[in-house]
Amino acid sequence: MEWSIHQLARLAGTTSRTLRHYGDVGLLEPSRVGANGYRYYDQTGLLTLQRILLLRQLGLGLPRIREVMARQTDPDEALAGHLRWLRLEQQRLDDQITAVQATLQRLAEGEGLMAEESLHGFDHTQYRQEVVERWGQEAYRSSDAWWRGKSEKERTDWQQASERLQRDWADAAAAGEDPDGEIARALAARQATWLASIPGTPGACTGAPDAGYLRGLAEMYVADERFAANYGGVENATFVRDALLRYADGLDGA
Predict the structure, then answer these.
(1) Which residues lie closer than 8 Å to 112 by C-beta, 6 or more apart?
(2) Pairing status of strand 3-4 against strand 39-41
(3) pLDDT tens-digit profile of 92-145?
(4) Under 8 Å between Cβ of 50 and 60
(5) Which 3-state string (H, E, C) describes the chain?
(6) Which of 178, 182, 173 has the alpha carbon at shortest distance from 231?
(7) Over 50: is that where the pLDDT of 58 sits?
(8) Using an 8 Å Cβ cutoff, are 204 and 146 in contact?
(9) Distance CA 37, CA 58 (A)
(10) What percent of the chain has pLDDT over 90?
């Protein structure tokens, strides 16, 4: 089965011009070109377009998408990774929708709000298994006790500070800042201090950032799409990674 460029563009909610551009930059080759000059795409093309659109949703530019697709040549494995991420996002959004609906209902009925109900879907413990696997049970227990010991205002303030840091990283990346420049170094220092403030993380006991820990996280920000999304996609996360790696090198030399 195959689709004309116009059919595929309509189904994808894009334009024929966009699909032709994907082809011109080496991302989406047609299976054949008709006598009328129209491009046609088979199932391989359809699969490739799906991957392109998924990566675009993560904020990747076309040069970066080309790199990712050249590295991830097994489409089954790549799509399985996308599916895992999409299901996590789906569950997170479903939980948050339920929480907001419950809050609206209680407000409409003049009832008091239930913290557990209103904040369902925003709980950091969704990453419990991953934290335990990466850094051990004690790291999770320490950070969990620290989080639960905070008041609601303290949690809100901390989350807002975290979001500001992520936005500042994304803004610096969008502005084309040098990962080794003054702005990037200042952001890396903020990131290191923020990480060291969380009990259970390496360096938390002394409040000093740990170079090895920073390097591991920096690589994970790019490798794991969930973390990359916090910074606006893999391209921005790559800037964060490069800045943190340079900062960590400075810690080694200190």
Answers:
(1) 106
(2) antiparallel
(3) 677 777 777 777 777 777 766 555 444 455 554 444 444 444 445 555 565 666
(4) no
(5) CCEEHHHHHHHHCCCHHHHHHHHHCCCCCCCEECCCCCEEECHHHHHHHHHHHHHHHCCCCHHHHHHHHHHCCCHHHHHHHHHHHHHHHHHHHHHHHHHHHHHHHHHHCCCCCCHHHHCCCCCHHHHHHHHHHHHCHHHHHHHHHHHHCCCHHHHHHHHHHHHHHHHHHHHHHHCCCCCCCHHHHHHHHHHHHHHHCCCCCCCCCCCCCCHHHHHHHHHHHHHCHHHHHCCCCHHHHHHHHHHHHHHHHHHHHC
(6) 173
(7) yes
(8) no
(9) 33
(10) 22
Q: Which residues pair with 3 in a beta bridge?
A: 41
Domains, the chain, with CATH or none: 3-73 (1.10.1660.10), 144-253 (no CATH)
Closest Cα partner for 251 from 212, 223, 221, 217?
212
In the numeric block, the tokens 């610096």 are attached to 172
Q: Are 250 and 189 a contacting pair, CB within 8 Å?
A: no
CA angle 79, 84, 85 (to 5 degrees): 95
Residue type, 152: E
pTM of the model: 0.47
Q: How many CB atoms lie within 10 A of CB 225?
A: 22
Write down the pLDDT at residue 239.
92
- In this predicted model, what pLDDT tens digit does every residue of 210-246 receive, in sequence order? 777 788 778 878 877 777 777 888 888 899 999 999 9
The residue whose two tokens read 């011109």 is: 24
Q: Which contacts of 194-197 are long-range, i.e. CB under 8 A and separated by 24 or more positions?
A: 194/161, 194/162, 194/165
Q: How far apart are CA 3 and CA 45, in angstroms?
A: 9
d(CA 128, CA 14): 39
Give the chain's mean pLDDT: 77
